[in-house]
Specification:
Helix content is 57%, strand content 12%. It is α/β, with parallel strands linked by helices. It has two domains: 82 residues, 434 Repressor (Amino-terminal Domain); 207 residues, Endonuclease, Chain A, CATH 3.30.870.
């Protein structure tokens, strides 16, 4: 992944992490071997390669010397990325730092550079697909856990993510699997739900958006994984991160084996789901049924 002007800190850390892992693999040294050479703990090596921490310039230079990396331009590029990766606090608005969890802060950064996103949702509409009314309804549900300011920030960020991922000319390829229960569930009111379904049907018509419904009769094992997203940062499938969330917890996972497991699960369920045309018909039919029920209410 090449350096980019204005590269977000989380993306810069991912680039450094992957480069260091690639350089180490080329030497056939284990993490333990490198830690021993440098007088470090094994856990420090694991945190650096796992993307859990940003590497200091001093530690980066020590690693590059150990791996025999001497290309001046490459070294300078990685040093610049290492510095950027450790500046997240200074590049993040205080309001975001106060009200957004760490995982979501990183997710927003990765979304800025993603070329493809795969999302699975078993319970509700992904935030980037929610209409303003549904987003408000979903966030209002958390009023006992988040104050008004936190919910406002979450709402603003959710709408900004939607504009970037769904409405921009630079939007990435977006693959979405929705459990059938999502389109059957009412959110706030029949009218709000109908509008949400109609909005998804319209968005699904974009060339870069691909939506599939997994019917009740398939994919019974998937809900146990919880909702997740896989974000590809380049055409190399290993250049990807995993975002998971549950209740009030969320996390970014950069471990290639874990990301690969979730990608395999996604692809398996994608093949078992209704095709895109059939899924669009199911969404449209549900919206039409809701609209019909509203018409009948008006007659009554």
């Amino acid at each position: 992944m090449a350096a980019a002007q204005g590269e977000p800190p989380a993306v810069a850390r991912q680039r450094v992490r992957r480069s260091l892992r690639r350089f180490r693999d080329a030497t056939a040294l284990s993490q333990g071997d490198v830690a021993k050479k440098l007088g470090w703990s094994l856990s420090k090596m694991q945190r650096i390669e796992g993307g859990e921490v940003g590497v200091s310039v001093t530690d980066l230079q020590a690693l590059l010397r150990t791996y025999g990396v001497t290309d001046a331009d490459l070294v300078e590029s990685l040093i610049s990325a290492a510095r950027t990766s450790r500046r997240q606090r200074y590049l993040t608005a205080p309001e975001y730092r106060e009200h957004l969890p760490a995982g979501l802060l990183e997710l927003v950064q990765f979304e800025q550079r993603a070329i493809a996103i795969r999302t699975y949702q078993s319970t509700f509409y992904p935030g980037v697909l929610q209409t303003a009314a549904v987003a408000e309804a979903m966030l209002d549900w958390w009023q006992n856990a988040m104050d008004e300011n936190a919910r406002r920030v979450r709402f603003d960020v959710r709408m900004a993510r939607r504009r970037h991922l769904m409405e921009s000319d630079r939007s990435p390829e977006y693959f979405l699997i929705l459990d059938e229960s999502v389109i059957r569930r009412r959110v706030r009111s029949t009218k709000v739900t109908a509008e949400q379904l109609e909005d998804i049907a319209e968005i699904a018509g974009r060339a870069n958006v691909h939506v599939r419904i997994v019917p009740f009769t398939r994919g019974a094992y998937m809900p146990s994984l919880g909702p997740f997203q896989i974000l590809n940062l380049s055409y190399d499938d290993t250049d990807a991160v995993l975002y998971r969330e549950s209740y009030l917890l969320d996390e970014l996972v950069q471990n290639e084996e874990t990301v690969g497991f979730y990608r395999g699960a996604f692809e398996k369920l994608w093949a078992q789901s209704l095709g895109e045309d059939a899924s669009l018909r199911a969404i449209t039919a549900e919206a039409a049924q809701l609209r019909s029920s509203l018409d009948l209410e008006e007659v009554d």
